[in-house]
Amino acid sequence: MIKDNFDDPFAEVKDVFRESDIKFGNLECVLSDNNLENIKGKAKNFCLKGPSDMVNVLNTVGFDVLSLANNHIYDYAH
After folding, report:
1. Are strands 24-26 and 65-67 parallel, antiparallel or unpaired?
2. Stretch 6-17: mean pLDDT
3. pTM over 0.70
């Protein structure tokens, strides 16, 4: 959905982000370019993964801390 315009999803919150002292977010997926395997035998409809270059976008937007503590933490095995 984002394609090449990575900051567009953050367009409406950029001003709020600029005014904050710390930006803490929930990263809803693993970021990796590796061919990771989905965890086998899980009762999940979706396993989420994003490209590693999203790290640059998240830095540009200004996140200080990102958490992976959510229901997608074990979508992929190393």
Report:
1. parallel
2. 79
3. no
